[in-house]
What does this fold into?
Amino acid sequence: MESNKTNREAALLVMVVFALGIVLGGLAVHVWGDRIWAQQPTTGMRSRNQVVADFTRELSLTSDQQRQLASVVDETRAKWRALYAPLDEQHELIRQQGREKIPLSLRQSSGRSLKSF
It folds into this structure.
């Protein structure tokens, strides 16, 4: 009789510890997501307005400084586009060559056309 009670208490204790682990783990993921993941930069380029807004928020820029910063951002991005423009044609050529090397059997076995990608 005593061992039955002890077994039930042990099982209850294991379930309580398991439930606490789930709750605390969920709470930790929530806090981590709010504080760490939200601060990580997103992939891709931010718009000029986002860049200016970030600088304005952090540095309390005046409207004249905002216009100057927007001009610098536009000028810098134009230079980057001009730098990489000659590579766009090569990039597309390499991409097409890669697609041509994919075996026909892979195209047919998937049941979908690669043109959908």
In short: The radius of gyration is 29 Å. The helical segments are 2-35, 48-59, 63-101, 104-109.
